[in-house]
Amino acid sequence: YPIDLLKFMQINDPSPADVKAWLVQLLTAVAYVHGQGVVHNDVTPVNVLVDRTHLAPWPPRLTLTDFGLAKALGPGAVGAAGAQDVWGVGAVTMYMGTGKTQERLL
């Protein structure tokens, strides 16, 4: 069963290569969502699930979840509204790389 990234990071220490692979997964997810004209608005470690059924090969697959704060703007209309999601990916990447959260950031 999947667990959120916050809990997963409490018991795992990913390598820089793992963080890079996860960053690609998150950016791909956000790019897809934005391509559909949707802004997530809440990219945080608790809204990223780690699929533990795919632990081999490492790293496991990540899934962006909880679209409760998402806004549908229409295809091609995301523009600057998507900056918050990109910032969120950066904050999550910082957490994946350091294991430390900044509550005001996340």
Mean pLDDT score, rounded?
A: 87
Question: Which structural category do the helix and sheet elements fall into?
Answer: alpha+beta
C-alpha geometry: globular
Q: Which range best describes the helical content: under 10%, 10-25%, 25-40%, 40-55%, 55-70% or over 70%?
A: 40-55%
Distance between the termini: 24 Å
| CATH homology superfamily | Transferase(Phosphotransferase) domain 1
Oligomer description: single chain
Report the top-level CATH class.
Mainly Alpha
InterPro entries: CC_SR_Kinase, Kinase-like_dom_sf, Prot_kinase_dom, Tyr_kinase_AS
Protein name: Protein kinase domain-containing protein
Domain Protein kinase: 1-106
Keywords: ATP-binding, Kinase, Nucleotide-binding, Transferase
Short characterization:
The protein is an alpha+beta fold and 106 residues long. Helices cover 41% and strands 13% of the residues.
Please provide a written account of the structure.
The protein is an alpha+beta fold and 106 residues long. The protein is 41% helix and 13% strand. α2 (16-35) packs antiparallel against α3. It is globular and about 40 Å long. The two termini are 24 Å apart.
Short key terms for the protein model shown above:
3-stranded antiparallel sheet, alpha+beta, 13% strand, ATP binding, globular, nucleotide-binding, Tyr_kinase_AS, Transferase(Phosphotransferase), domain 1
Map the helices and strands.
Elements: E1 3-4, H1 5-11, H2 16-35, E2 38-39, E3 48-51, E4 61-64, E5 71-72, H3 83-98
Antiparallel strand pairs: 1-3, 2-5, 3-4
